[in-house]
Amino acid sequence: MDVEKLEDLDRKFELFKEKMGSTNHPFTRDTLDFLDKHRPNKAFQYWALVMLQRELDRAHTEGLASQIWDLEGRINELLGRGAAVIKERDELRAKSNAVPEGFVLVPKECSDNMAEIIAITAKVCGGIAGDVYDAVIKQAMIEALEVK
Known about the structure:
Layout: H1 3-22, H2 26-38, H3 42-97, H4 112-122, H5 126-147
Helix pairs in contact: 4-5
């Protein structure tokens, strides 16, 4: 603490006293009237007002803390539910993308290399090889739907 800080506090205290004398705030006005009647000591009155405000602030803070704890619990509950939903979604996605037993995963479109292998193996031209591949893929898709 230094003199400058003390002078600043003096100015603030004078302003505080001025506001206390002219306040229209019902709680503060009623409290000051009560204190004037029962404890006319101004220093005690200011101290009492500070203590009452501290009690109000503490109650407010405790109320906010309680709300925060409740919200934290609800958030954790929702996060837990969300994790379960994500897990279920991933399991369903894995099942829906699973290749049925007896099938292999191949591209829908026939590549040039695949068409060449079909043409060589079946002893047909490349254009027919692509048509054969398309027919096989369509039939495999039909059979995959029947398996499900």
